[in-house]
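User: Predict the complex.
Assistant: Input components as received:
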Amino acid sequence: MSLRLSACPYTADRRSCIMLSIMSADPSTPDAYDPGNIEAWAQSRWREARVFEAHESDPRPPYYVLSMFPYPSGRLHMGHVRNYTIGDVIARYHRMQGKSVLQPMGFDAFGLPAENAAIQNQVSPARWTEANIAAMKVQLDRLGFGYDWRREIVTCRPGYYRFEQWLFTELYRMGLAYRERAWVNWDPVDQTVLANEQVIDGRGWRSGAPVERREIEQWFVRITAYAEELLEGLDALPDWPEEVKRMQRNWIGRSSGVEIDFERCDGAGAIRVFTTRADTLYGVSYLALAPEHPLVRECAREDAGVRAFVDSMRQRETREAALETQEKRGVPTGLQVRHPLTGESLPVWVASFVVMSYGTGAIMAVPAHDQRDHEFANRYGLPIRPVIRVPHGEGRDPSGTAVTEEGIVVDSGSLSGLSSEEARVRAVSLLGRQAREVVHYRLRDWGVSRQRYWGCPIPMIYCIDCGVVPVPARDLPVVLPEGVQFTGVNSPLLTLKSFRETACPRCGKPAHRETDTFDTFFESSWYYARFASFDSLETILDDRAHHWLPVNQYIGGVEHAVLHLLYARFFHKVLRDMGWVRSDEPFTRLLSQGMVLKDGAKMSKSKGNVVDPEAIVARYGADTARLFMMFAAPPEQSLEWSEQGVEGAQRFIKRLWRLVHERVTEPCEGPLDPEALSGSGKALWRLLHETVAGVETDIGNRQTFNTAIAKVMECLNALARFEPEEPADRVLAKDVLITIVHLLHPIIPHVTESLWRSLGGEGLLASRPWPVPDPAALAREEVELVVQVNGRRRGSLRVRVEEEEPAIRSRILADPALARFIDGARVERWVFVPGRLINVVTRGERPSG
RNA sequence: GCCGGGGUGGCGGAACUGGUAGACGCGCCGGACUCAAAAUCCGGUUUGGGCAACCAAGUGAGGGUUCGAUUCCCUCCCCCGGCACCA
């Protein structure tokens, strides 16, 4: 075995093409199982044959398998291994099914860790990142994942982000990107803005620091313009987990209701509120405004009480954004509005529980039928007027809780007597121009500006005369400068004159560049599409995108259920509207894999329960690691790490290895003649084909790789017990091994590739067709029929498949072991499930025991 | 609070459409091989009773539908995830 460095011949990018290539001798000898040697051998065979390169000219049907690309931290963790093993199994399975499989890989290479490493270790983020990528590629290859590395995407390289910048300028032209001064979530540790989706329980998703509120100029992308389509599109995704779809529906948060204008008594216009319960209009006893409402600002100027209240609210928001169990508080603004139907004068309050960012920032309060309004009214002595009668509502104490159910409207003028649903429609028509039906979403526009260095520069220029000017396509990419100095606080771009200072592309006068960079979710929102047109220099995508997209199978963790998957769906729809892709959704089928746990907890440095994949591969080999990952649990479930389980996986591979090499020396010739099989041979023959059929459903349809493996194990156990009697039996035994080697190839590709050669196979197993079950083998002459008496299993009976029920009945009654459960009781009826069971239902006493 | 998912041997899990509960693996127990150990192979392994054939109980708890329920329905307990002053 010799080690040599070789330049990878088919990687376009020189920086990533240095690879370790381990040349070794053909290991298919009957010696002990040596994973290191076998795996290096198999990997170099695949590389030489270029089996993982996907070509558009391939006449076979295309199949695009994609696993979520990793952040290049430098080392793979077990979550990656699980994710990428699932992807590779699916890819290899479909290749054997005769498809032209595309399975690419790349790196989500912008982001904070590189910057932190730069500050701590004085290395440039670019060099740190590229070194990590090189290390991780070695690890990925070592695990035997079949990627088309020609298509590798590294998001921090200008060749990639150039088109991202171009796309953003297009969004700007389409009115889908805009700049606005806005209250944002500020992470004081990471020194940057966070999107709503990145705030978890009031804390930054990365740093865990309590998020503060700040008001700054930000770039936003108008994802809300697609809110309805993003919601409806979920219905067209039957092969997505319900859980993920539900989370997205929740996040988009569609709510349809009515906006109603309440005229101010002072004649200075109206206050617009949003409600989903226009049927409770007669129950309104006050209006409540958010502390940030523009009208409240006005009032605060004149009213010291309002001013003090608003100030205290701001304190709350900066200091304790996470505090949620707050009491509802408020003050009157002094304003009065007129009820649009009764003309009654109603007070307007500022209230802590009304948020500016939803609806109109103002509500009509109906204390009798809304719990929050109710608590507030109780606290400040405001009237509570029940206007909805619900069944069984009589006994309820109206002063305690609000009745939030729908029912029959009462005490409401011409709305009285209507159902809630009818009353809502009627109310809108009664209100005329003062009301309109509207739909609101919880989903906010996506704030994409980050005040960080290591990200894709936002390609915008600010000119005193021309204002905001997008960088023209001819000037792209705006390259992120390297060799910058880090202070550890602000982005180096802020003070880097050579970057910041530029000329206006429109008028040529001195201007300055935007120094913010994109949220890294921007890069990961369209990489799946770029893999198709990875080397297109002129355009973001080309015709090859039509060949491969949408992705047939996407695999990744649930943690991306709303963030990444929602943004990618949004980008896909934008790309579709721009004419670059033709489908509505980017990912046809989604598998969201569970976490890898140890001792019941997620592996993490802080808990000290991390298992390093590299150590496992070094000790047991890649095949063992892959087999354990796929066998220990179904893919959606969390997987409990078990060193003993790993050893069990290795034991199975060794057993397979030994059985092949034992059988290989036995003489056997010619094709299998089923007629010549012995009795036990026939049984094994059937089991083999049941296994083939079962594994196909388990991998191809159900994606329960654990049960597929269990079926193969059963078949191998049966083979190990099998003692050939006839020459045909020996042919069968070898057939079983050849088939098993095929069935396991997607999961443990290296050892099966080697065993295929030992078994005399021609060419590469990786490009072999998947076995097809023989219907003749599956046909049965006899089945074991379960015999039940009153639903309890009392025995079984071997019956011919064509045997009629009456004959079976009399056999049961004639069998003393079965009949004794029936004797002394009257048979009421028989339930016969052909091929499965027969149940005798009796009435009356029967002897027991 | 609202919306989901789940609870099966000592452990990971299986049972796909209501039809033999515990496949497969781990662990454990016994045996073979060995001077011995490791590795490997064979057998056993839900619980209780019995020498055994066998019998009884058993899928978080309780009830229901059914010839038959881990699977369907109702009530409750516990665990996990998502959302949450969203009007």
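The domain at 613-778 of chain A is CATH 1.10.730.10 (Isoleucyl-tRNA Synthetase; Domain 1).
Let me know if you want any component modeled separately.
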